[in-house]
Amino acid sequence: MLHLKGVSKTYTSGDPALSDVTLSVPKGQILGLIGPSGAGKSTLIRCINRLVEPSAGSVTLGDVDLVRLGKADLRRQRRRIGMIFQEYALVERLTVMENVLSGRLGYVPFWRSFLRRYPARDVQTAYRLLDRVGLMDRADSRADALSGGQRQRVGIARALAQEPELLLVDEPTASLDPKTSRQIMRLITEICAERGLPAIVNIHDVPLAQQFMQRIVGLRAGRIVFDGPPSELTEDALTEIYGAEDWNAMRQGDAEQAEAEADAKRRMEALAQ
């Protein structure tokens, strides 16, 4: 289980990013973080693995308080936390297989990673993961030859190569089209279910969060203002999270996007006739 207690973050400018965030994520639960830009969603995810240093509070994974660890111990504990990034964070000149194997860097000696001579077990695991995310036929392709959805699949496989106990996912669909976004979210949720893997997903798309998340936490100005199942994410709750003006604008944007998708489909059908 992951447990956050009183996590706060104040930047050197004095601006607060998080204020007294307390929550627990049990094994196997997929939690979606929603909220307006600047609400603290990405900061919260990064405080968990200390890519951002919390100003106060504790972050406990199992029985280890990650906030209290020194650099060497933190490096070892980070192996337990897989991270999937919005911008994929792949090494584009390397192959898909090499990018997936980079998830094993915390486990192998430096000389093996430098020479790209990973143990046979790691290579076999990487092939299994590529098969699971649907990229077995692209193992030898360079990362810069892939589409956005394929790159995100590589990022998922790389995170899983760590054999993590927790998955942190930061805006996994922000750069993807609606169809690919649903495919990626379905893949993430299926894999978490298969492995009993807890996950925290920072997601900007509310309907997508309602469709795929088991639990929703809404942040506003660095504070939790909603915590519950998607079924309880009423219009009043969304207004509390986003504000009336922001939520109305978001609904209008969703409607415009849906209409654009429908119009594109009609055009394709007309061309096919």
Short description:
The protein is α/β, with parallel strands linked by helices and 273 residues long.
How many domains, in number, for the residues? 1
The proportion of residues in beta strands is 15-25%
Query: Tally of extended strands?
Result: 10
**Physical arrangement of strands within the biggest beta sheet:** 6-7-8-3-9-10
> Outline, from the CA principal axes?
globular
Within CATH, the superfamily carries the name P-loop containing nucleotide triphosphate hydrolases
Biggest β-sheet description: 6 strands, mixed
Mean pLDDT: 86
Query: DSSP helix count?
Result: 10
Structure write-up:
The structure is a single chain. The longest helix has 29 residues. The mean pLDDT is 86. This protein has a single domain, classed as Rossmann fold (3-Layer(aba) Sandwich), CATH 3.40.50.300. Helix 5 crosses helix 6, helix 6 packs parallel to helix 7 and helix 9 packs across helix 10. The protein is globular, with a radius of gyration of 20 Å. By secondary structure, the chain is of the alpha/beta class. A six-stranded mixed beta sheet has the order 6-7-8-3-9-10, with helices on both faces. The chain has a four-stranded antiparallel beta sheet with strand order 2-1-4-5, covered by helices on one side. It is built from ten helices and ten strands. GO terms for molecular function: ABC-type phosphonate transporter activity; ATP binding; ATP hydrolysis activity. This is Phosphonate ABC transporter ATP-binding protein. Keywords: ATP-binding, Cell inner membrane, Cell membrane, Membrane, Nucleotide-binding, Translocase, Transport. InterPro entries: AAA+_ATPase, ABC_transporter-like_ATP-bd, ABC_transporter-like_CS, ABC_transpr_PhnC, MetN_ABC_transporter-like, P-loop_NTPase.
